[in-house]
Amino acid sequence: MFIYLYVFIYKKIFLLQLSPLFSSQQRMFCLDNLICACVYFLADYFREGNSDLEDSELRFATCQSLQKQVKSETEQIEEELNEQLFDNLVSFLRRSHSAFQEKTTEWTWRTKSREIPTAALVLGVNVTDHDFTFRSLSEVLQNNVTPYIALLEAKDCPGIKNLMQKLLGQLMNCCIDVGSSEEEDYEQVSHTRVRCSMTSLINWYESATKRTDSETPGKKRTSSRHWQSPPVVVIFKDMESFTTKVLQDFVVISSQHIGEFPLVLIFGIATSPMIIHSLLPHSVSSLLCIELFQSLSCKDHLSTIIDKVLLTTQFPLKLSEKVLQVLINIFLYHDFSVQNFIKGFQLCIVEHFHSNPLSILCCQLEEAKRRVNSLSHNQCENVRRLPSFRRYVESQVSEKQIALLTADSSLKEAVRKLLEDLNVYHENYFPILRCLHVFTSSLPKYPLGKQIRELHCACLENRVWETEEYESSLQLARMLNKSDLVTMLQKCVEILVSSPGREFDEIVERLKEFLTQFQKLEETYQERDESVSPQKELQKKTNLYNLQKTLLELKESRRSKKLTKFEMLRFEVVDYIDSLVRRYLVPADHKTLHEIVYFNTASVLREHLNAAPRIALHTALNNPYSYLKSEALKSDGGSISNKAPDICIAYKLHLECGRLINLVDWLEAFSTVVTAAEGPTADVASSDQVDDVIHARFIRAVSELELLGFIKPSKQKTDHVARLTWGGC
Amino acid sequence: MSLAECRSAGALEVKFVPDEDVLRHIADDAGVKVQKGKSQLIVNTKRFVKKLEAISDDEAQEILEEKNYVAVLGLCGEGTWGTGTYHRCYFGRFFLSQRLESESEYSASCSEEEEVEEAQKEVSTVLSHQKTPAKTKAVSTPPSRKTLTKKKDNMNNLVEEYFEAHSSSKVLTSDRTLQKLRRKRLNQQTLHDLLQKSPLAYAAEIKELNQQYESLFSKWMLQLHLGFNIVLYGLGSKHDLLEKFRTSMLQDSVHLVVNGYFPSITVKSVLNSITEEVLDHIGTFRSPLDQLEFIMKRFKEDSSLELYVLIHNLDSQMLRGERSQQILAQLSSLPSIYLIASIDHINAPLMWDQAKQSLYNWLWYETTTFSPYVEETSYENSLLVQQSGSLALSSLTHVLHSLTPNARGIFRLLAQYQLENKDNASYPGLSFQDFYQQCREAFLVNSDLTLRAQLTEFRDHKLIRTKRGADGVEYLLIPVDDSTLTDFLEKEDEDV
Lengths: 729, 496
Hints:
Chain B: This is Origin recognition complex subunit 2. Chain A is of the alpha/beta class.
């Protein structure tokens, strides 16, 4: 059952009645009457897109659980990151509030000068992440400090009146949440009817606090959670976009009443704290007692996320180098938004599980091993088709090859083993990567990158030890001084000890040995000091001949370069690190079965997250063959193929014009091209008729170009249109 | 995959051709007449492209494989996200066209062989840089310092030339007009009939394309449910595709179709239909923001509510405003509202800043269909189509019928006066004082206040327009063409 709903405005009603052309398409809104039935379940959509239906449900379940896991993990990380900031804010509130409570002289002094305690919260340019920060901030405040919190956004507050309305509305609502149901009838007085003024706000505050005070004997909980006479916190989410007048008015008005109720402002600032002074004149900003708070920069934020989510074995899905590169590029060059990065990662998860039938094995090792047993024959074939698996098969002896290719059971056995290998590889990979990062991040000029993500990408891309950058960083590492080297080794030991890898005992042993050797060096150093060094000899009185001789000897000895013990040891350490890198940091795509856990179709990700609509449009207009696989369009080498679709021809012709285009000339050129395409077959007699059709086609092409935004009508000259792109202004 | 590769290869080519053309305009013939055939110019283009191809032939395979490179170009050409990228886009353009300039100099004068050789070298250095995969990503940055400085020189020149070409307001085009063509203007109806007659070119290929996109439907549903919203872009009307999506996927669920191209659609009407039809709410709201809040509250309270919103042409004239986009973005950010929309305008992505974009949470899908924009353009008052005026006429009569006889008289007076002056090209309109005088004489008003009240009503219905003359006097105009006005007066006379 359908109900067609027509929504139009007044005059347009005639359109409907007068022109039969539209009558069939006048469904402005089609609303299927509320048959609210979710017939389809999500898993069905998941399955339907897949060519092979096997295990899709299981895959979908895995996908969902992984997504949930990632989500909760990232949220937790963010909370932890914000904790410090929130603690500072709460203590700020406490400080400013204690003054109010005690009614100390300081407070009265402040009241006299009418200063409002204000926290300026510098959050950085990643505006999209702020929402989350503010949400958790208000949650924290709600739980620990005060029930009276108002979050204001610039778009809701075009004038001071709207601002007050919004403020009162939010405050009174939150009071309902705290108050019990008995009081509700009192609160039912709709805030819209209350005159929105500062006085009513104060009256409300007094009655609200009195009520909670009188309740305290009965309800200890509310009072224990919040402070005595809790402050009213007003948060301006995006301070920069507020109109200056509204802000000024609000500050001035509320400063008049600051003695009557404790008001605290929080400004969310995206740019720099200087903005307060450029928005508010001195007379207003002097009414604020501003304290500055800085949130963690989004770069550090991202590093933490990458560190905790991508560089662990916790999540079975891994990103390949290109995919990670796309995500990081979007972050660095487009938005600095950590939320978007996480969103990209979530998309990777969906895409991977949706497109790869073998992703069913992309789960924790134990579970994966169990699932291997129940693989169907088709899935086994899928495994055999994997390029990395084929490479593996080729490296085996011939009997084994046959067994792997024909018998499912032996294949499953091999897959189990390979999965285990892969798991071990990851367990070793990440700690060693961190160790290497400890070394490279302290080298001058950072040949392998400052951030661990850069190092990670380099390692994933190809054998890192074959690159020039690695070579140069090793050389630099060979010149490190002792104290740096020791601290680095200590850090490495810490990393390796705390990681779960099984093979690290030996490595830790070795590193500790190095450390003790360094220790010993220090002890022997004194001994060596005592032996007279050649430099000291120089200082003795000598004659010229002797001096020359000793200098020559010195030079000689330097050339032959007897390595000191320290240098030897240093070489040894660096070589050992090098050997570790070669052993453990093999790129993932050299590993068999990496396709199962690595998502590597970066193009899909880029297409969907960082699309290029203009490029697509131009490709379609310039070279229709790339979409329409017709032979007639194929010979199209940059010139106008006269068989191209009308809009392409019109587009190409318009490219030849300047800022203004004469419609008549354009039409003529168009018809020349089009008639040339149709060839001499067109009858002379019916030429007039044909002309009309071409005219109509031209009109359509032009109005389509107008819709696409390439041209617009111009009044500069009759029958001209203005070009809007590429040189046309 | 092969299709995608071809596309990327195409994208590569696209970068060059228009730039070349643009350069031509900037360099020499900003205002030369439109070339009628595809004469020499195109030949040049062809030759140029061929040359480029010859150079890049060996690398062609690699370029195809190194899709990175194409994508970098793509990013360069795109101003999707912010001004920063936009900047780079311009830079990229100059950078490319700069190379083209040296090429075109070659074709212009063969004497400067040295420079040409250098230019060739430049091109090949760029290409050889592509060879090393490590450097692929750096293609958008200039390959070497030496060339950079050289380029800077040339670029300055180019920039100067660009502004020179655009500083003069005079544009030379031919003076021919459509009237001299002695061909009658087609009206909407005949246009439609004519187009119906001519067969759609490449129907089979277009159908194939559509089928390709239709296979994505279930994926779209999945992604919609996972919290993403979907936006479709690419050449060609996406109306039919979305309609197909609706009929095949949304039959059993509540959904709302918004035809953004409809000239009088507003966000308010979208919100109204949600509150009235989906939420069964009777009552009005003070502002769209209140309404939005109400909707958000309802959807948050009742998790069983689900709504699919399909918007054809999200970038249409009426919806592209900042406020409408903000409201729609907030609407789409609700977890139980699933939005799937299409955009066509080349600058459509500029509508969205970071905040809106994150609210929308788009997944982009390219759906180039090549199908004609039949419905989308039917409302557009095309330049070439004769305006029938029937719409204007009927709205005139309709509005006037609801007015008092005096008000009708006032309007008649103005209309008559305008028709009397229709040959006067510089007719500014009727000044308010004169008008008042005339109305008094005809006993239509007794004070200028009553006249003003009348005029306000007219203005609200967009029947008249006022503008201030150079001397500060208010002039009144009826923004309807003369023939319609004549028709209107005749009809009025009949009625009376």
